[in-house]
Amino acid sequence: MEISTVCLLVFGIGVIAGLRSMTAPAAVSWAAHLKWIGLASSHWAFIGSLPATIIFSGLAVGEIVNDKLPKTPGRTTPGPLIGRLVLGGFSGAVLCANANQSFAIGSILGAIGALAGTFAGYQARKRLVAGLKVPDLLIALIEDAIAIGGAFFIVSRF
Fold first, then answer.
1. Residue 157, pLDDT above cutoff 90
2. How far out from the chain centre does Cα 20 lie?
């Protein structure tokens, strides 16, 4: 796979982490578990193990539920933002490792994608709710579908 394609996909998985932080690593874990990506000979092999896949999936489902609760902090506040950057960088690094590319490039591009996805997702959700005069829950559910579908589309390209 060409480096430009890898970089675009890694940035994309970062954007997914910006939308739903745990969806990106859960999708990467599933891809490794299903052998869509080959990590068996790397130090990242644990990500594809059944326990890791269950944990990442459970955290992703928990985040999707938690996102709908009224007391959930905003994604752009420092704690959630840092988490998104770390998880986007982590997911990008793993995908780069699979493509025999630089771990550092994957981490950086994944984190930049997460930063972009965080703020773009926030603005899109806020503006769609206001502009369409629909409940936030409806837009949040659409965002969930985009994050899940986008994540699995991205990891399936490897």
1. yes
2. 6
- Contacting residues for 34 by C-beta, under 8 A, at least 6 apart: none
CB 48 within 8 A of CB 113: no
Nearest-angstrom CA–CA distance, 152 and 60: 13
Residue with tokens 């982490």: 17
Tens-place pLDDT, residues 40-94 = 888 889 999 999 999 999 999 999 999 999 899 999 999 999 999 999 999 999 9
What residues have CB less than 8 Å from 76, skipping those under 6 apart?
118, 119, 122
Domain ranges, ordered by start, for the chain: 3-66+74-156
Selection from 154, 119, 146 nearest residue 64 by Cα: 146
Sign of CA dihedral 150, 58, 32, 47: positive
Per-residue pLDDT at 114: 98
CB 77 within 8 A of CB 103: no
At 83, list the tokens: 């988490």
Dist CA 15 CA 119 (whole Å): 10
Cα dihedral 12/15/19/25 (nearest 10): 60
Alpha carbons 27 and 9: distance in angstroms, whole number:
13
